[in-house]
Amino acid sequence: VSLLVEQGDLKQGGFLVAGTTYAKVRTLQDYKGDALKIAGPSTPATVTGFKELPQFGDVFKVVKSEKDARHLAQKAKIEAAQNAATANVTGADLLKMMNQKHDAEDFNIVIKADVQGSLTSVSDSLRLIETGGEVNLNIISSGIGNITENDIHLAAAGEKTIIYGFNVELSPAIKKIATRDRVEVRIYKVIYELLDDARAEMEKLLAPEVVETEVGSLDVKGVFRTMKEEIIAGGEVKSGRVYAGLLARVIRKKEQIAEVEVSHVQRQQQEAKDVIEGEMCGLSLKTKKKIQLEVGDKLEFFTREVVARKLKG
């Protein structure tokens, strides 16, 4: 990926976010292909390490850790999905975008336990967590005894590696090194608590899910005004209810032709909180491009949420 540093410095091994994706900079080269350790202001550079290719023109931002990078990229992905809901992107397009197959994410850990039996039990139980192939569990190292400086250095050398300790200790000196190297060390005395923590960390790596919930439907009886970004229409609610903020599919001859958002609802020319099945109402529909709504069209109202996913089992 080619980019131009405008402010600050970009370093090999650093983390950066670009739109809905992020990278740990594996290689950093100048325009001639020569290796760079640091790219300063006004420096064109080529980097590798992105989880997915960013879009042309995306602005990149350097962050402190992979956790920060993943969080910002995930936030940008959710915002993009929510913005798409108000644009004229169809639900099918959005679902395809959000549910596209992603490469499996890596979850790297180091395990330390008090005795061999505990170590085996923890390792085997972690491997039994079902991720549907979306998360790869990588046990970078495992051993018996307290957390050591070598464990910290080993975790710091990898991408977002967590050290799990079971019935072991973390001395103040080693804790200080872990803090300095930004390595997370988590000590547990109950195996199920350790497994729950690991499961929660794996779930953070899952791509979010788009959930659509049907709310109601309406038959269009009149179209009173059509503008570039708004349609004023009226109709009869055939099922459920209608209120401002809902999304709606415009159906004509059993085919979806557009998607709009309800900005206002009126009953007998008065603003209404909602209208229910069997009632007539007026609607203000918001869209990003001009749509020729027609009498006889059907509106299917629904909500769309982007939600965090959970592992099964």
Please name the defining characteristics of this protein:
single chain; 313 residues; alpha+beta; Elongation Factor Tu (Ef-tu), domain 3; Rossmann fold; 3 domains; 6-stranded antiparallel beta barrel; 5-stranded antiparallel β-sheet; 23% helix
How would you portray this structure in words?
It is a single chain. This protein is α+β, with helices and mostly antiparallel strands and about 325 residues long. It has a six-stranded antiparallel beta barrel with strand order 12-13-18-15-14-19. It folds into three domains: about 1-85, Elongation Factor Tu (Ef-tu), domain 3 (Beta Barrel); about 105-205, Translation initiation factor IF- 2, domain 3 (Rossmann fold, 3-Layer(aba) Sandwich), CATH 3.40.50; about 210-305, Elongation Factor Tu (Ef-tu), domain 3 (Beta Barrel). It contains six helices and 19 strands. It has helices at about 65-85, 90-100, 115-125, 150-155, 170-180, 190-205; strands at about 1-5, 10, 15-20, 20-30, 40, 45-50, 60-65, 105-115, 135-145, 160-165, 185-190, 210-225, 230-240, 245-250, 255-265, 270, 275, 280-285, 300-305. It starts with a strand and ends in a 6-residue tail after the last strand. The longest helix is centred in the N-terminal third of the chain and has 21 residues, at about 65-85.
